Amino acid sequence: MTTVEASDLQTNETDERGRVYLGTEYANKRVTVAVVEVEPTSPDEEELAAAYRDTSERATELAAEWDAASDEAWDALDDA
């Protein structure tokens, strides 16, 4: 079994096709790569649903605030 030092681990981002650029120091060499962990770069469905609920609730609150402000403005114009 191969022992890997923690200082030897690198974290790289993939491109849109899932490829990683290792760098020119690996040109024309045989390399063995192990994927240790994969972190998603986009939110999962639960996070999206929670964000949608929060946004929907806030939109409802803003609509109610707007209705109150609008009613006040129209009442002020009617009284003028």
Distance between the termini: 87 Å
Quaternary arrangement of the chains shown? Answer: single chain
* Largest sheet geometry: none
Q: How much strand?
A: under 5%
- What is the helix content? 40-55%
Helix and strand element order:
H
Shape descriptor reads: rod-shaped
The parts where pLDDT drops under 50 for at least 5 residues are none
From the alpha carbons, calculate the radius of gyration and give it in angstroms.
Answer: 27 Å
Provide a count of the helices: 1
Question: pLDDT average, as an integer?
Answer: 86
Write the layout of secondary structure elements.
Blueprint: H1 45-79
What labels describe this entry?
80 residues; mainly alpha; 1 helix; 44% helix; rod-shaped
